[in-house]
Amino acid sequence: MNPFIRLMKKLSLLFDRGRFLRELDEEMAFHRAQAENEFVAGGMTPQAARYAAMRQFGNATKLREQSHETVAFSVETVAQDLRFALRQCTNNPGFALTAILILALGMGVSVAIFGFVDAALLQPLPYANPGRLMSVNENSVESPRWPLSYPDYLDWQRLNKSFSSLDVYSGAGYLLSASSGAEPVQAERVSGGFFQTLGVHPMLGRDFYPGEDRPGGPNVVLLSYGAWLHRFGARRDAVGQTVDLDGKAFTIVGVLPRAFSFAPSGNAEFWVPLNSFSPHEKMRTFYEFMGIGRLREGVTTQAALAEMSAIAKQLQRQYAIPGRDQSASVVPLSEIIIGDVRPILLTVLGGAGLLLLIACVNVSSLVLVRAESRRREIAVRGALGATRLRLARQFITEGLLLAVFGSLAGIILAIGIMKLLGRLVPKDMASSMTFLGGVGLNAHTGAFAAAIALLAALLLAATPMLRLSFQTVRDGLADGDRGAAGRLWRRLGANLVIVELAIAVVLLAGAGLLGQSLYRLLRVPLGFDPNHLATVRVMAPATVYQGDEQMAGLYGEVVRRLSSLPGVEFAGMTSMLPVECNCAIDRIHFPGRPYHGEHNDVDERHVSAEYLPTLRARLVRGRLFSDAEDASRPGVAVINQALARKYFPGEDPVGQEIANDESGRPSLWEIVGVVDDVREGPLDADTGPAEYFPINQTRDHYFSIAVRTRQDAGALLPVLVSILHEIDPKLGVSDEATMNEKIDGTQAALLHRFSAWLVGGFATMALVLGVVGLYGVIAYSVSQRTREIGVRMALGAQRSSVYKLVMRQAGWLTLAGLTIGLVCSVGTSLLIRNLLFGVRAWDAATLCCVAALLGLASMAASFLPAHRAASVNPTDALRAE
Amino acid sequence: MVDEMAKKPDLLHGTLDLLILKTLARAPLHGYGVALSIKRLSGDVLTVEEGSLYPALQRLLLQGWVKAEWKMTETNRRARFYTLTAAGRRQLGIELSQFEQMIAAIGRVLSDAQEA
Predict the structure, then answer these.
(1) CA distance B1 to chain A (A)
(2) What is the C-alpha to C-alpha distance for residues B35 and B47, in angstroms, rounded to an integer?
(3) What would the pLDDT profile of A621-660 be if each residue is shown by its tens digit?
């Protein structure tokens, strides 16, 4: 018989149970009536016949049930189990709530973190066939991804056979003229095929036409969705309008789709074709453009790398470029976009996983205790004839019920955590973490959550089974306190607690190390005083400020007006503030020394005379610049100690000269002074060599101002902005912030803070769960040993020895957990050593602190039950038997 | 009733389905008819307990070996008549041959035991 049809029959019976029973009743009534008739025919009185028929027929209800059992599912009993399980939960809400909460916590945290991991690391980038997209660049010893020069790019594009298309991009800033005044905006200059290479099509208007990216091409611009929405009110007729960027009219030809984002470009709003070049951008040795390429089908990354490196070497020979061998770098684009966050996300996921594990262990031991306390109930049910299977099913039902509630709560919690964490990421950083948009409950996270829920269900259902199978009815009915089962549980529960404590140690150690890293990072020697320092970014329109005199006039005016403000000590300007990045790199050489194109790369900053005193950078030798040193005078430079150490070891750099190509012109700079290292690059990177040139000799339209204040720097920020607009409303002013805000907001600080806080949070929860678990085991053990303790005390044991008895047990467990945990944590610390800053993976102080913390917490947790044990009244304990 | 039951030989385990199928193979019957027929044909030796009969009928229904329909009896009462289906006829054949094999096997064992 077709099992499907049978199932359907059963189903129809299930839904039409009333009819089934009615028919059965009628059938049985008929049967009785027939039997009655026969008895009457045999000579009985009708009355006697009826009784005889009923007697013969037997218990109608039982018969009905038997018939029904034959055809029904086992749902009825399942429903019974479920009702009973629910009643168990409501009878003992403490247990059920605790189990559900712990499960929800572990699950919520791990699903939420997995959501981020999935969005960042597992989901493909939002481009066509993203696996074939590569970041294609030059390669140098100092930096594995060195930008391309424009002529090199053209040759690479022409010569290569590995890529179906090769494009470049380069960040740019423009001054947007709007009715409200000038505003600096982020833009990106891209080669013409950039969007085709990514496989992105404008949602409105068109992509760049071929040829629009040749030198002298038209001023056209594609808007980002955000710019279209906020600056043009999402009007369709924005396409075709013109927009004033840096005093030039650009025609809007299209709008990029909402889902489009390109992390390396951050929040760029305006995308223009690469068709106008400064003189130095046309040089073969001016490296400024980052490349992306789409690999042809069948070409491997290695093959492409080999080909591009060969091309790089060939070009080096052909154009007699001095220096070390040039080569190329070809890495998947995804690596560039998510490479930074991968170790942090994996670390946090690991932490969440450990927390989940500890939560599961905790819930398991809760369930074990519960099964233990229900031993008698189970034994009685067994003695009354419940089969093993039926008893097992009861436990499985209860476990599943807990798992379902816990998982539902966990998923809700996960959604909340994902939203919360997503909001905690600062806007600046979020723009380069475009995957954040994909975080949420989707197929992947849903499947992950389902897998965890299944695991939890298995665990919750299986744990008491483990317990059940060890037990015989007879043992259960007997007073089991002294039975083997009690010992067995104690051992199992104790082992589980050791696991919990060990995990807590691992998480605590990780949190300690990450926290120390954050602490050290924020207290890394800066080489300047970040307190009472207000900063702002300024962009001067090149159309207005054309000559050296005009720029010098602007610089002078800005410094004069700002330093005369009340509460301001100094004001200075720089091409780039400290702690931002190791960019604006200059390749220098030294007149009088042989030069073969070595990559002598140093940070280059253009600063006003007052800038270094404003930072309170310490002058070590020589002097700083004066304002009088302008374009009409010979070039001068101040260098940092790192440069002096690296290039002038054992000699006095003051009076020596540095040579470079400044804006495409060979230039010479006389070193007039040496300052202590100011941390120009990220907090977590070593401070490299740096050179400071007078801003009056270099002419920057884009610069930052630093103001040393006597009081709170934050209060001065609005004043700074209004003074700058007073000086010239056409100045673009942005990014006003105090130096401390800037430091706190750097990527390094944020990433370290993110991981330290998250892992710290996990560790706290783990500590609480572990200690509560320990408390549970000790308290349970004490409650089981009440009689023994009573006997001991009756025989003359002192209270202190009872304390000792209990504390010794707790001490052993803690010690075992600590030892295993410390050994494991050295291993896990080695795994996260790339995230550590200024602290070693096996930092003894951290491990000692963790051990002390956990030891104290454990002792505190076991003191309560020990106290209870010591307060046992021997007479009561003995009488209780 | 308990006493009554004790006097009668038990139905050999697993043979009830076979008896019902065989009975229904002759003619469609209601539940009472099936019980009565088995009792008469066995010369009052085999009494089908109602507690076994109706669950067994439900089982056979579920397997699709019999089908049931409400009809009128000669005395004009509504009763559920069971009819053997084609599948039931096949099943009857299978069970018959199994039963014969078993009886033969038991017979061999018993005769052997007598000789010994």
Answers:
(1) 7
(2) 7
(3) 999 988 888 888 888 999 999 999 999 998 899 999 999 8
Structure tokens at A515: 């926290």
User: B2-115 — its CATH code?
Assistant: 1.10.10.10
Q: What is the per-residue pLDDT across B44-54, written as a single tens digit (0 to 9) for each?
A: 888 787 777 88
Contact B55 A10 (CB under 8 A): no
Give yes or no: residues A563 and A516 share one domain: no
Within this chain, do residues A538 and A415 fall inside the same structural domain, yes or no?
A: no
User: Would you say residue B35 has pLDDT above 70?
Assistant: yes
C-alpha span between A840 and A318 (Å, rounded)? 48
Q: Which amino acid is at B15?
A: T
pLDDT at residue A568 in the model:
92
User: Exposed, middle or buried, A525 (CB in 10 Å: 0-12/13-18/19+)?
Assistant: exposed
Cβ A365 vs Cβ A776: under 8 Å: yes
Where chain A has pLDDT below 50, the residues are 1, 473, 480-485
Q: Do B78 and A30 touch (CB under 8 A)?
A: yes
Residue A489 within any structural domain of the chain:
yes
Residues A508 and A538 occupy one common structural domain = no
Average pLDDT of chain A is 85
Query: Nearest to residue A462, comparing CAs of A400, A554, A553?
Result: A400
A111-141: pLDDT as tens digits = 999 998 888 888 888 888 888 999 998 887 6
A30 → chain B, closest CA residue: B79
pLDDT given for residue A72 in this prediction: 58
Give domain status of residue A727, yes or no: no
The A residues from 553 to 612 touching B (CB cutoff 8 Å) are: none
Residue of A11, A70, A73 to mutate when probing chain B, most B C-beta within 10 A: A70
What token pair was written down for A862? 């076991």
Q: Check CB contact under 8 Å for B55 and A62.
A: no
- Name the residue facing B1 among A31, A55, A67 (closest C-beta): A55
Where in A158-282 does DSSP place strands (E)?
Answer: 163-178, 181-190, 204-205, 220-223, 242-245, 248-255, 270-273
* Residues A694 and A839 placed together within one structural domain of the fold: no
- Inter-chain touch B54–A33, beta carbons under 8 Å: no
Predicted local confidence at residue A14, as pLDDT: 66
Place of tokens 């900053």: A605
Q: Return the sign of the alpha-carbon dihedral for residues A13, A15, A21, A27.
A: negative
Contacts of A489 by beta carbon, 8 Å cutoff, 6+ apart: A368, A372, A467
Q: What is the pTM of this model?
A: 0.71
One domain for residues A456 and A596: no
**Chain A neighbors of B55, CB-CB under 8 A:** 63, 66-67, 69-70
Among candidate residues A292, A325, A358, the one where a domain is terminated: A325
Per-residue tokens: A15: 């839904």
Distance CA A661, CA A278 (A): 14
Contact A311, A156 (CB under 8 A): yes
Provide the token pair at A326: 């040039």
Residue with tokens 């505003």: A183
Q: Which domain holds residue A594?
A: 533-710
- Using only C-alpha atoms, what is the Rg of chain A? 38
A480 in the same domain as A373: yes
pLDDT tens, residue by residue, A139-159: 876 667 788 889 999 999 999
Name the domain count of chain A: 4
CB pairs under 8 A between A and B: 71
Residue A134 lies in a domain: no
The DSSP annotation for A367-409 comes to: HHHHHHHTHHHHHHHHHTT--HHHHHHHHHHHHHHHHHHHHHH
Cβ–Cβ < 8 Å for A574, A615:
no
Residue A85 lies in a domain: no
Calpha distance A189→B77 (Å, rounded): 95
ipTM at complex level: 0.77
